[in-house]
């Protein structure tokens, strides 16, 4: 189900403090593009004794489906780069190679980012009580491997723009709270908005 957005345009910048699962900080910048949006950001973190930096540049359609994602990770063992490209209809290439395991995904979801949970809710217009499956191309933080991640969003109530989120692969469920621009304010166990 897609349609007119429930959200205002994003601010110029937003930031999140990561907690519990990792210690770190994420900053993102939002740019309007002719025919879409661009988000550029960076997360620095310590997780399970590992330090890492993940930088990203994600281009989106006007409906917030992912077109491309350029992701770079730096760790103590070196630097890695991954490029994801989508036709906007659920077919993907990863580093130039067709990735059929991602067929049907419209969003990229970075393990390193709280911001990327913005894309499905911004892209979909869900009435209160509605639920949707929103599988994503999931990019791991440390090695940038790309997996398919099944996800479900259920819009719970207004005001407050809250969604129940489920990720069966991780046995994870929480209630996500978004601001008027559709950016995550509270991602329990993962991150909270700093600005």
- How many independent structural domains? 1
Order of helices and strands: EEEEEEEEEHEEEEEEEE
The tally of helices reads 1
**Helix percentage range:** under 10%
What general outline do the C-alpha atoms trace? globular
Q: What topology, given as strand order, has the largest sheet?
A: 8-7-6-5-4-3-2-1-17-16-15-14-13-10
Structural class assignment: mainly beta
**Count of distinct strands:** 17
Reported for the largest beta sheet, the result is: 14 strands, antiparallel
- Average pLDDT score: 94
As a percent range, the share of strand residues is over 45%
Distance linking N and C termini: 30 Å
Q: Segments where pLDDT lies below 50 for 5+ residues?
A: none
Could you walk me through the main structural features you see in this protein, from its secondary elements to its overall organization?
It holds the Pfam family Glycolipid_bind. This protein is mostly beta strands and 195 residues long. It has one domain (13-193). It has 1 helix and 17 strands. The strands form 2 sheets. Strands 8-7-6-5-4-3-2-1-17-16-15-14-13-10 form a 14-stranded antiparallel β-sheet.
